[in-house]
Amino acid sequence: MADSAKPVVAAFDFDGTITTRDTFVPFLSLAFGRRRVALAFAVLAVEGVKVWLRLSTRDRFKELIVAKLFRDASVSRLSAVGREHARRIESLIRPAALERIRWHHDQGHHLVMVSASLDLYLEGIAEHLGFQDLLCTAPSRDQSAFDGGLEGPNCRGPEKVRRLEALLGDLSDVELYAYGDSAGDREMLAAADHPYYRPFEAA
């Protein structure tokens, strides 16, 4: 049973949990154009089949997409695109998710967004929604341009728990609420005192 004396933390996945749909591919289309993104996915179709056959992983596929699209792209330009995308996807936020976020905020709980989506647009959304911390995937950069890599692993699956532990310490020392909607949230939900799987879809 959770200890009410412990600090309370609410960890929310973003895509599909707070929002009604994915926001990563639409960002790519906005940043690089639909034709270029479609071509990148076509070039990596064999790797996509490997993921489907469980011979590769979604994490590896994402690394390859980022390498193909982001290398040498301007940090300032994509940061501006990210801010525009953040404004656009405000309309995708589930009302029930927003209500729950506000409830945690009103209770004085520590709000953490934990997502495999990109910092380029999540920073603005997380701030707008009142999250104290953002744990997410970030393309790595070399001064003014992206270098085609990631700053650490894709923030999905076990990596979500590792990031939370790095931020909070031993998770047994906090009372953890977790909200997710996919297999990529399984480990985070398993680590929570109060796990909620797709809680906002029926609302």
Tell me what the structure shows.
The protein is of the alpha/beta class. The chain has a single domain, classed as Rossmann fold (3-Layer(aba) Sandwich). The protein is 46% helix and 19% strand. It contains nine helices and seven strands, in the order E-H-H-H-H-H-H-E-H-E-E-E-H-E-H-E. It has helices at residues 24-32, 34-43, 45-52, 58-70, 75-89, 95-106, 119-129, 158-168, 186-190, and strands at residues 8-12, 110-118, 133-137, 139-142, 145-150, 175-180, 194-197. The strands form two sheets. The protein has a five-stranded parallel beta sheet. A two-stranded antiparallel sheet has the order 4-5. Helix 9 (186-190) links the parallel strand 6 (175-180) and strand 7. Helix 1 packs across helix 2, helix 1 (24-32) packs across helix 5 (75-89) and helix 5 crosses helix 7 (119-129). It is globular and about 50 Å long.
Any key phrases for this structure?
203 residues; alpha/beta; Rossmann fold; five-stranded parallel β-sheet; 7 strands; hydrolase; HAD_sf
> Briefly, what CATH class?
Alpha Beta
CATH level-3 fold name: Rossmann fold
Shape: globular
Tell me the span between the first and last alpha carbons.
Answer: 27 Å
The low-pLDDT segments are none
Instruction: Please state the CA-atom Rg, rounded to the nearest Å.
Output: 17 Å
Q: Treating each run of at least 4 consecutive H or I residues as one helix, how many helices?
A: 9
CATH architecture: 3-Layer(aba) Sandwich
The H/E string reads EHHHHHHEHEEEHEHE
| Beta-strand content estimate | 15-25%
In CATH terms, the superfamily is: HAD superfamily/HAD-like
Number of structural domains: 1
For the secondary structure, the number of strands is: 7
- Strand order in the largest sheet: 3-2-1-6-7
Mean pLDDT: 95
Approximate helicity band: 40-55%
Largest sheet: 5 strands, parallel
